[in-house]
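Here is this case:
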Amino acid sequence: MEEQKISVWGSVRFWRNTAVWVTGFAVLLLIWLSLDTIPQISAGTIEDLENGVTKRVPSAAVINYEIGYELDNKRKTEIPIIGGKQMFFGRNDYSEEEATELVSHGKMTVQSKNCMNCHTLLGNGAYYAPDLTKSWLDPAWSETGPYRPMTGKATTEEAMAEFLQHPNKYPTHARMMPDLGITPDEAIAVVAFLKHMSSIDTNGFPRNFNKIKGAVNAK
């Protein structure tokens, strides 16, 4: 009797070996991606800032520095640019520990006040209110923008802190922000957190963050 040939596609051994090879490849790929990603997302240090070393996630001490946003012709996207020292609530000498504590306090305040029920941060949250990922860089808070003069404050950080404490007084957006009872210390911490967020290289995300629909004088 002629022996029946079994197609390779119906071979249990073939599929078992294939599963082993595919699983092994996937594990190696995951390890490689992890080793490549960890240095990219690890926060820098204050020494990096002092030595002009660029990190995707700078140290929290970046609040001591001016932050810009420019087009990188090689990458074809906008990236944060860390400039020289800049006063932040009257200081530009926050230590690594002080800055980290302040930024962490701001992050915890954002979480405890459920800000992401309306806003978006790094792609997470809601789209009812403006994206806050690069809010520190929004020209509306600059000296010539509509928001800072509205608060009567001299600096971006002071204007943002004033707004956070008394949002009902300042019609910055068609959808008014509710008064969340943010204290002066919490407001300073939140602004520090937002400034640090704006220094993170997010590959150009979000696009056109400064063009907020419904905002005063939005273009």
User: Anything to note?
Assistant: The two ends are 83 Å apart (CA to CA). The beta strands are 65-72, 77-85, 120-121, 124-125. The CA atoms of residues 3 and 19 lie 28 Å apart.
